[in-house]
Amino acid sequence: MAEAQDKGRIGLLAGKRILLIIGGGIAAYKALELIRRLRERGASVRCVMTKAAHEFVTPLSVASLSGEPVNEELFSLTDEAEMGHIQLSRAADLLVVAPATANLLARMAGGLADDLATTLLLATDKPVLAAPAMNVRMWLHPATTANVALLRQRGVLFVGPEDGDMACGEYGPGRLSEPMDILHAVEDFFAVTPAPGVLAGRRVLVTSGPTHEPIDPVRYLANRSSGKQGHAIAAALQAAGAEVTLVTGPVTLPDPVGVTVLRVETAQQMADACRRVAAEGGARDAAICAAAVADWHVVPADEKLKKDGSGTPPALRLQENPDILSGLSAPGPGRPALVVGFAAETEKVAEHGRAKRLRKGCDWLLANDVSTGSGTFGGEENAVLLIAADGEEAWPRMSKVALATRLARRIADHFTGEASAAE
Ligand code: PMT
Question: Which of 3, 9, 16, 20 is the most buried (most CB within 10 A)?
């Protein structure tokens, strides 16, 4: 089975250029095996070692296995003469950090550029995959948790760490993933990442985040959406070359780079903004509705509602909001070529998702489980069932960034397939 899976991956790394940044941890020895595996699969591997990495592996073994010189110093006259650090950070298809120590992750999160490794990570315009390795308490420390969450938010991909016995005698999460698992994560990245520019010329609308429906000047109805999924989708589509307009409810996330962002508060405002974008052609090729739009609003009171001493709470009369997804899906001349909705379900996810796709009229629907304990709302990961007229695909649990990348690839493949069918 594992062999068959492995066969399906053959060729994914042929000609790919990996920049491997080796951090200083006891697990650094596994980087040697990783270099061997990557090269076996046809990738070229250029390595950078942090100063601390020298305590665990030698530059000579790294250079011999990679077949390339090892870069170590930020201000090295020879290295700069041969290949400047900016160029080194851009020449790769993917940067892999393994082992990514607590210190290295902290420096990445803080945007430091105090050695060659962190300078490259700050200067790169390429995706980064980190394989953390550290003591269990360091991994579970709130500082590391916050750094990892921030890096994920910025699009850094992660593999591991694994649970197990640690070199320090403790047990728990913090072990570096096995080289084969890191290799598979690298292959998965290339399997699902759309080719750069493949969506060039495509105009796409994405909705994201919650809506806030005011009750009075100080209170509102809301939901737990953070916007992480929708924002990641906007970023992934932009990275694949699409011209993206993101209409977002109130979130605390930074705007995705290179995306036109329209901020709204209520469902009505989101509906109006989407209608305007669609009328101007900004949703010509696709609309992805990832926002958790409130189904209802109340007519807000002009003044703050007060307790009147009677013990009877005020009655909130709910009125239905416009359905943005149904509106965009309606047949007509301005309809986006592809409309993708989400379904947030707490039970019978597949069944309700199928019914919702038909009711709303979208082409694809990504049904996700948002039941208590799923962590989907606000969390870093998601698993979906992609429901289309011609079939379904179960996408396993992965980071929201990885899911967004996979969706961008799926959309690109859809358009490429249509184009070749038309030829
Ligand atoms: O934001 P995160 O914390 O990252 O969480 C991601 C998510 C759980 C919000 C996301 O993955 C998701 O499921 N988004 C859709 C949430 C939702 O409102 O689902 P729904 O089943 O209530 O609505 C179905 C679809 O109709 C959705 O595409 C929604 O955007 C759309 N809709 C709903 C109501 C409405 N008035 N207008 C709409 O367009």
Answer: 20
